[in-house]
Amino acid sequence: MQKIKVSTSSEYEILIEKGIRLKLREILPKREDCKYIVLTDENVDKLYGRKLFESLSKYNLIKYVLKPGENSKSFEELQKFLEFMAQKDINANDVLIAFGGGVIGDFGGFAAGVYRRGIDYIQLPTTLLSQVDSSVGGKTAVNLNEGKNLVGLFKQPIAVYCDPEYFKTLEDRDFSSGVGEAIKYGVLFDKNLFEELSRGIDKNQDLSNIVKRCVELKRDVVEADEYDNGKRQLLNLGHTIAHAIEIKSEYEITHGRAVAIGMAIMARACNKIGIFKGDISDIENCLEKNNLPTKTKFNIDELFELIERDKKRRGSYINEILIEDIGSCNLKKFSFGELKELIKKGMK
Questions:
Q1: 151 annotated ligand-binding residue
Q2: Is 106 part of any known ligand binding site?
C-alpha cells in the first residue's frame, strides 16, 4: 500500500493499492454511533454497490444514488440530497462517502461542506480522472446553467482511498478522459511522466505508480497554495477552453477529453507566439496515442461567449497557463481580447 500525506488546513492520507476496496472494513475510521452515507451513481452502484455494502455489513450504511453525468451537479439535485440526509438524521458525527468519479466527488464534497455547516467526508474515487486529480485537494462544486463549477467551496476530505482495479470496468472514453488529466501533470511538471504516458497506457495495466505520481504532484501544489491564489492555478492548464467545450457539447465531451483539446490548442498557440520551445508534435502525438482529441468542431465565438463567464475570471482579466516546454509552464494575465487572439492562433 502506498501512502501519501497531505498537509493542508486539515491533514489526511491518500492510500493507493490494488484491491484496497476489499480492505475498507479495516481502514475506515472507527467512530461510535456513526452512520456512513454512501453517495454514488447508477453506474457505480450497479457494478460495485452490493459488494461494498456486503464488505461493510457491520457498519450503519445508508445509500443515495444519483444519475451519472454532469447534469446531476445541480442545485435541484443538491437540495434533494440535503433533504434526504436531514430525513435520515445525518449529524456531525456521521461521515459521507463519495463513491464514484469526479461528479460524485465534487457534488459529495460540496454537500458535506454545506450540510450542518460541514460534516466529514471520504473520497472513494472509481475513475482514473478522479484518482489522479479531482479527489485530491478539496475543491468541490455544483454547476449553474451559466457555467461549470460556478458555485463551490474548499472542503478537504478526511481520507482518500484509490483502487486502480476500478479502471477495468471504465468505458474507453471515460478511461481516456482520466489519461488526459494525467498527461496534464506531465506537461506541467514532469517530463519523465509525460514520456511514460507518450508510449500509451491502457486500463488493464497496473497504474498504481502513475496514480501515485500524479497525486504527489498535486499534493505539492495544493500544500503550497490550498486556496488557489497562485501556483495552484497552473492545474487549470487547458481548462478555460475545456469547460466551454464541455458546456457547448452539453457534456457529451467528457472533462478530460475536453482538457486534452484545451492543452493541444494552448500548445499550438504557445508555439506560434514563440513561447513553446519544444516539438509541438510531442504533445499532439501523446494525446493521440491515448485516443484523445486535439481539435474541436466549435468555433472561437461559440466558445468565447462561455469563456468570458469562466469562474477563473478576475475583473477584466483572466490568468491563463502558457506552455514553455514539457515539464515547464507559467501563468500569465490576459485581457479577454488578448486571450481570444491567442486561442484563435491555437485553433488554426
A1: no
A2: yes
- C-alpha cell at position 118: 460541514
CATH code of the domain covering residue 197: 1.20.1090.10
Is 255 annotated in a binding site? The answer is yes
Q: Report yes or no: 100 and 73 within 8 Å, Cβ to Cβ.
A: no
- 243 belongs to an annotated ligand binding site: no
The answer to whether the annotation marks 181 as part of a ligand binding site is yes
The rounded distance, in Å, linking the Cα atoms of 238 and 250 is 18
Burial category of 170 from C-beta neighbours within 10 Å (exposed 0-12, middle 13-18, buried 19 and up): buried
Q: Do the domain assignments include residue 72? A: yes
Whether residue 282 sits in one domain with residue 233 = yes
Is 104 annotated to bind ligand? Answer: yes
User: Is 239 annotated as ligand-binding?
Assistant: yes
The reply to whether 45 and 137 lie within a common domain is: yes
Please give the model's pTM, rounded to 2 decimal places: 0.95
Polymer length of the chain? 348
| CB-CB contact of 39 with 108 (8 Å) | yes
With respect to residue 175, please indicate whether it lies within any of the assigned structural domains: no
Q: Show the domain range for 66.
A: 2-169
pLDDT per residue, tens digit, the chain (348 aa), is 999 999 999 999 999 999 999 999 999 988 889 999 999 999 999 999 999 999 998 999 999 999 999 999 999 999 999 999 999 999 999 999 999 999 999 999 999 999 999 999 999 999 999 999 999 999 999 999 888 999 999 999 999 999 999 999 999 999 999 999 999 999 999 999 999 999 999 999 999 999 999 999 999 999 999 999 999 999 999 999 999 999 999 999 999 999 999 999 999 999 999 999 899 999 999 999 999 999 999 999 999 999 998 878 888 899 999 999 999 999 999 999 999 999 999 998
